[in-house]
Amino acid sequence: MKIVANRLTHHLLEWGGGARVVVLLHGFLEHAHVWSLVAPRLAAGGWHVYALDWRGHGQSDWVGAGGYYHFADYVADLAAVVRALGTRVALVAHSMGGNAALLYAGSAPQQVTGLVAIEGLGPGDADPADTPARYAQWCADLERVAARPRPTFTLAAAARRLRERYPRMGEEAIALLAAHGTRVVAGDQRAWVFDPLHQTRSPQPFYIAQARPFWQRIACPVLYVEGDESPLRYPEAELLDRLATLRAARVVIAGSAHHPHLEQPDQLAAALLAFLA
Questions:
Q1: Is 141 a domain residue?
Q2: What's the start-to-end Cα distance of the chain, in Å?
Q3: Number of folded domains that form the chain
Q4: Alpha-carbon gap, residue 258 to 267, rounded angstroms
């Protein structure tokens, strides 16, 4: 399915046809197919399920020359996608997608019926004094990416790299990531489908003081999901403080690191269906 949103064509996968709509939002450098182990379970539970490829990921458009990928762009894209779907939606979002979903839900609280953020409540707070250095690094990163040739590799090599990076994932999950996260460029050679601009560090720091007003405007129930073995877990006091601002419930997925939807899809689907009900 294709939707033109914010002047870019966005690709979505679709499951089921229930009256209630849930939109699944992937994380950094990933794609809509990462939800393929969870989405059919949600559809079987009566949900009409969509999974979005964010701009510059999967089969959605890359930005044009001179463009970039700021969180404000993701929010505008999501707002246009929800308008095109023509109904209020629940959101289930992972990591980077979770941060964008929280900003959208705070911008348009009347459009969101429920929100699940999986390992995505923003990074640690930033120091404003570091911003000039981030801008300088960003400019250097843009030049580096523009000058660097795009690496190519075989599908088997992509799977090996993913297996090394995500040792808790099963072979089905690795195959999904490799097959749909790469595209053929010549013969058996492939390249990652994401725009290399994502491999630059954004010039805009994350400020918790800026995020809180968005979080406080969210009107729907919120669930935070984390893996009990995640390397990105927040310090407990910091996490509880952020959850208090969101008035959010919390679920911990056993035997999972940063990707519960790929590492423990049965556990996660059960938690999602219970919360969204």
A1: no
A2: 26
A3: 1
A4: 14
